[in-house]
Amino acid sequence: MAKPPLSMKPTGWFQVAWSAEIGVGDVHKMKYFDTEMVAWRAESGELTVMNAYCEHLGAHLGYGGTVVGEVLQCPFHGWQWSAEGRNVCIPYQDRPNRGRRMRTYPVVERNESVYIWHDIDRREPYFDVPDVFAAFGDGSGVDGYYPQQRLYREHLELHPQYVLENGVDFAHFKYVHNTPIVPIFTRHDFGEPVSFVDFTITFEGDDGQRIEDVNSGVEAINGGLGIAVTKSWGMIDNRTISAITPVDEFTSDVRFMVYIGRTPHKDQARAAAKADEFGREVIRQFEQDIEIWRHQRYSDPPALATDEYEGFTAIRQWAKQFYPDGIGGSAADVYAATQKG
Ligand code: FES
Ligand SMILES: [Fe+2]
């Protein structure tokens, strides 16, 4: 594929697993941002994500590492590492090594997902992970929804920014998702690391209707480049989370989650079946986007229609803040930065 001229090491929150994949005592292996990592859950339930290689002699803690109470024990010589990445025990010496630390990552578990904070300069998190319910401030909660439905696609050749740009790309809805008419945007707010995009859209009716008369839409909140949550209104109540996490310099893992709202219904089994069917349809639409993204080449500067200027300029300018050295513009910038090492 065309390697995107955008850093695959952006700053922000990124999903690395679902919470249920890592039970108490589990040590889970993964690779993100070109780095081998482990996630392990202590007896107390606390989840830690750290780099995988033991600071002693470099054993990979994902192969035979064991959770002992609140620490992770290396399979090679039994050194124990705490949730803060500190060495707390060398079994054949009376004191631990206080100097060396395993690199750990800030972790948040929310909406059944595990998110880590990634920043190559190791700054602390400076914005929060949007919650697919609470972020909309409407009093909604998971109890009002059917169980989360999921899509997981590994190692796709795409960049997280492609997925976010989809949110300002009004013209694609008609062609990729077969909406009868082109949506219009009612809000673009790219002032902060958490940004907001609202638009009016319908999936019903024919192309004879006017978008001004449509009474349904979507509100989207982007928590940096890694996570977007959406809420629909005026149509079947659904919430979505899309989470794109770079694996290496070429590929990303894509996770997409859908919640369908519960409605009072006489026949609960039938209602649940319909919700399941609708959720699968939402996922199918996201898969239509994926087919474009995974074969796409990042176009910079793009040829834009007049009405596309504002949205694309705003989101691309906003995205730059998450790239090391503010890169995210031209391929030349990226090349220069890689030469710096
Ligand atoms: S390599 Fe981990 S304890 Fe020696
Ligand atoms: Fe789309």
TrEMBL record:
Reactions catalysed, as given in the entry: cholesterol + NADH + O2 + H(+) = 7-dehydrocholesterol + NAD(+) + 2 H2O; cholesterol + NADPH + O2 + H(+) = 7-dehydrocholesterol + NADP(+) + 2 H2O
Organism of provenance: Mycobacterium rhizamassiliense
UniProt GO molecular function: 2 iron, 2 sulfur cluster binding; cholesterol 7-desaturase [NAD(P)H] activity; metal ion binding; monooxygenase activity
Family from the record: Belongs to the cholesterol 7-desaturase family.
Keywords, alphabetical: 2Fe-2S, Iron, Iron-sulfur, Lipid degradation, Lipid metabolism, Membrane, Metal-binding, Oxidoreductase, Steroid metabolism, Transmembrane, Transmembrane helix
Class of the enzyme per the UniProt entry, highest EC level: oxidoreductase
InterPro entries for the chain: Cholesterol_7-desaturase (IPR050584), KshA-like_C (IPR045605), Rieske_2Fe-2S (IPR017941), Rieske_2Fe-2S_sf (IPR036922)
Protein name in UniProt: cholesterol 7-desaturase
Keyword field contains Transmembrane helix: yes
GO BP terms, alphabetized: cholesterol metabolic process; lipid catabolic process
